[in-house]
Amino acid sequence: VKTNSLNKTEFKFGTFQSLYKLNPALLRTWSEILAQCEGAKLVMAAPEGGKTILRNLLEEYEFDISRVEFVPLLRQDLHLERLSSVNCILDTFPYNGGTSVADSLAAGVPVVSLQGKAIVSRVASSILVAADLPELVAKNEKEYIQLAREVFLKNISIHDCQEKIKNSYFARPADFSSDLYEALTNITLRS
């Protein structure tokens, strides 16, 4: 787990997930987060040909485009490096991130996620719980906005999140595997 070194005067939310996960409820929620987090920016990855379409879509949802930074899609190694340029990732819903959430946590960047009822809406929350960060899992859109605001206001400490990640199963897969093996062995012996 890395610790990110950021410009301390500018707060950046980020989302680097596939654009097909964007939907009206999500865009309204992100727009509200920016409205409540004065000065914060949203960094979004977009394919070269999709920036104009994405910009127009965001304007439909009353985003202040001057607070949105469009960045190109990158190779995986460069993308992982870029993750440390944002303070907090905003997960998509109802289709949560999986690999993108794990990558963000590995880079030391907290992720705010909204847990739903279907498996596709629970992947990120499972990863966040495994990383000992259940406080970043929202149960509804209002709570999602509030959690993002708490991270922005530093009521939820990015440093504390990084420490939790370092000490969680997420950062110690061998321990997780060993404990899982032991639990499964005990279950098998009981039957």
Task: Indicate the topology.
Blueprint: E1 12-15, H1 24-36, E2 41-45, H2 51-60, E3 68-71, H3 76-82, E4 88-90, H4 99-106, E5 111-114, H5 123-130, E6 137-138, H6 141-152, H7 158-166, H8 173-190
Parallel strand pairs: 1-2, 1-4, 2-3, 4-5, 5-6
Helix pairs in contact: 1-6
Radius of gyration: 17 Å
Number of E strands: 6
| Uncertain regions spanning at least 5 consecutive residues | 1-7
Strand fraction equals 5-15%
The largest pleated sheet is described as: 6 strands, parallel
Broad structural category: alpha/beta
Series of secondary-structure elements, N-terminal to C-terminal: EHEHEHEHEHEHHH
The percentage helix is 40-55%
Q: Compute the average pLDDT.
A: 90
What is the straight-line distance between the termini? 39 Å
- Treating each run of at least 4 consecutive H or I residues as one helix, how many helices? 8
Spatial order of strands in the largest sheet: 3-2-1-4-5-6
Tell the overall outline. Answer: elongated
